[in-house]
């Protein structure tokens, strides 16, 4: 056994989260793509079957009340809340991330005072955020200013209405300084919207603590909600009364079954709802969130423990890559500093698309991101140090043979 | 056996759609709420289980290609197309009806020429359409003009940009004249958006034939897609190049995985997509649509046969109500003329909320609609004439006792 393999064994033996792995359906594959689609939690299939066969098939329409369908968006929002450092009553689940970015950004502009007519957006953002921000700007009479994250502070001013930022960059894995950037946006008198897609469930976010205004995120990455599972919207409690949605569907009405022709928004986070919630996907997500509560015997999973393991995994991966991969064949574009690193490692590599294909054939599943990035995501709930060592070893061997 | 019960038996015996009932999970209940939540098709649970356990659990990320997840919105749109009289390539599935109303209405205003700054909306519409229309008007600089359907023609003029209409009124069950109203909107030079929630799957719509511009609809009523299953958006082929979405998410990009910072809309109906599709709910819907293809032995279900049975069911229900219900206790607000009737019967009734509770206790499930309406929906795929006779009989008995 190599030194690194022995090290991996030691690290796995003392890993307090190793017990959580049994709550996921996994096979011999090293799955480092949980930041694209989280693995299936074992509790989900049974729950979905119950929702389909009994709740829909037998109770039918009664389930809107009796099975808690109607209140699912806010109930499941409250399950996500502790994972992103939010008190209850501030998150609703529903719609896609793109749709929630639109809601949040338009509402943010409307919260900003008169004379503020610029939306600042992270120019390196996941593209959909930029496209939606452009539409939000167009529809609110604002100008869109895409800038590199490092230039955000210098761009803020009296005209800034809203700022849309990514907590973790989807390509490089860089973690942005949410507390400092939030404070800077507030100092400029503007409203901040954070996209948590690549951080929620992988590291502490601290929405309440840092005074974040609005946030959105998907649930199919580190929250393991399943393919295309609904996204969520956070609206800080003090701002809820001023949350003026561009998508005021009947689910956000103060009295949805009053069927009133005049719109009157509901109080609280409910105001972020739009249309009828997508129950199958939503309740699959609810079951997936059970893994955070522990296995019934052990205690719940703390996001602090997840973060500690995540950093240990990415540190160890970089160490193994250094040892196994021929010099000069890959270059990490993920920051070395812990404070700047999310839960992934992105390696620039010539022919990355083909290299990733070969890795997948050999049971190491990561992601290729245009044009030359090998992206490896580390979900601390089910990835172990042995997986990490194997992934780096297979990568090294693949590149040797080339 | 009463005369009407004997008549029901005769009608059931010659019902060519009676064979389809076995494709649904039903019990002793008379289910007349399929216009709120369609019953569970028998093929759905197995399909959902496969999607969860194999496609998600085993193939994981590979399923986006290998299991056809990525192309599901347009593939399933093409399955809905023949049911609403549309050729392939004009419908995408995804998001809620409310979100699709927003997309359609904003896009409609943008298609309308300069100087057109009014949105006309059916004032008796399902409330969410009105709320969303108000938002669309506000965000496009238009004025919203809510008018009774009968007044739509007189309201149209040079300033009309877009008109949002319901094919069937959710409360009264009135069927509006889609061909004539579409022609009137076109004669005024405006763009029409039809909401098909209460007609698709219950009667012929003829989108292509009548030159409809844009249409939206849900899939959980007469299409039986399951609770909160995704809605759909129709964009007539000739208008697709001018469809300018207010929600230009990355799924609607010409090259979604190019991760380009500049937005370039995809060609065709794809342009109506937004974010990552909700796979569990979407593939449950796909399985639910199998019932229209026949049982593998018999031939497919024609929407013409569905309409014929629907009218026979509602006619027979009105006849049975006339016979069984004490005079003066209920008043139908659903039009008698076939050309003006959808697939439901709405009865105004004092204390309708309590009456419906008692009916449900006795195994007849309909809906109560504020303030005084008993709503009964007839899904020809699984409701029989015996059900209809029993529902009216139980209603009569309940009102007698009161």
UniProtKB/TrEMBL annotation, chains A, B:
Catalyzes the cleavage of L-kynurenine (L-Kyn) and L-3-hydroxykynurenine (L-3OHKyn) into anthranilic acid (AA) and 3-hydroxyanthranilic acid (3-OHAA), respectively. Pyridoxal 5'-phosphate binds at residues 97-98, 126-129, 195, 198, 220, 250, 276. It comes from Streptomyces prunicolor. Homodimer. Residues 76-291 form the Aminotransferase class V domain. The lineage of its organism: Bacteria, Bacillati, Actinomycetota, Actinomycetes, Kitasatosporales. It comes from the Bacteria. GO terms for molecular function: kynureninase activity. It catalyses: 3-hydroxy-L-kynurenine + H2O = 3-hydroxyanthranilate + L-alanine + H(+); L-kynurenine + H2O = anthranilate + L-alanine + H(+). Its EC number is 3.7.1.3. This is Kynureninase.
């Amino acid at each position: 056994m190599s030194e690194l393999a022995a090290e991996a064994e030691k690290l796995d033996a003392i890993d307090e989260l190793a017990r959580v792995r049994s709550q996921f359906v996994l096979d011999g594959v090293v799955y480092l793509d949980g930041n694209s689609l989280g693995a299936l939690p074992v509790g989900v299939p049974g729950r979905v079957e119950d929702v389909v066969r009994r709740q829909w098939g037998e109770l039918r329409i009664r389930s809107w009340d009796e099975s808690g369908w109607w209140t699912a968006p806010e109930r499941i929002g409250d399950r996500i809340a502790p994972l992103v450092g939010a008190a209850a009553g501030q998150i609703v689940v529903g719609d896609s991330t793109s749709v929630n970015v639109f809601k949040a950004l338009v509402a943010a502009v409307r919260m900003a005072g008169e004379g503020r007519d610029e939306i600042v957006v992270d120019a390196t953002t996941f593209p959909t955020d930029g496209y939606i921000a452009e539409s939000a700007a167009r529809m609110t009479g604002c100008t869109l200013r895409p800038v590199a994250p490092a230039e955000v502070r210098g761009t803020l001013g009296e005209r800034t209405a809203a700022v849309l930022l990514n907590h973790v960059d989807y390509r490089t894995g860089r973690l942005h300084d949410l507390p400092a950037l939030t404070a800077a946006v507030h100092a400029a008198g503007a409203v901040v919207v954070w996209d948590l897609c690549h951080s929620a469930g992988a590291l502490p976010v601290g929405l309440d603590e840092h005074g974040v205004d609005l946030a959105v995120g998907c649930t199919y990455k580190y929250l393991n909600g399943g393919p295309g599972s609904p996204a969520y919207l956070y609206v800080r409690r003090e701002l809820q009364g001023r949350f003026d949605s561009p998508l005021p569907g009947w689910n956000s009405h103060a009295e949805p079954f009053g069927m009133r022709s005049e719109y009157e928004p509901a109080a609280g986070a409910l105001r972020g709802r739009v249309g009828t919630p997508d129950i199958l996907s939503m309740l699959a997500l609810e079951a997936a969130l059970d893994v955070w509560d522990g296995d019934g015997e052990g205690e719940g999973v703390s996001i602090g423990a997840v973060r500690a393991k995540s950093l240990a995994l990415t540190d160890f991966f970089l160490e193994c890559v250094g040892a196994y991969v021929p010099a000069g064949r890959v270059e990490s574009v993920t920051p070395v500093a812990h404070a700047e690193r999310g839960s992934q490692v992105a390696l620039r590599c010539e022919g990355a698309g083909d290299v990733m294909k070969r890795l997948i054939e050999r049971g190491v599943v990561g992601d290729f991101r245009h044009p030359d990035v090998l992206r490896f995501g580390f979900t601390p709930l089910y990835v172990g140090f042995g997986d990490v060592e194997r992934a780096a070893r297979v990568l090294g061997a693949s590149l040797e043979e080339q």
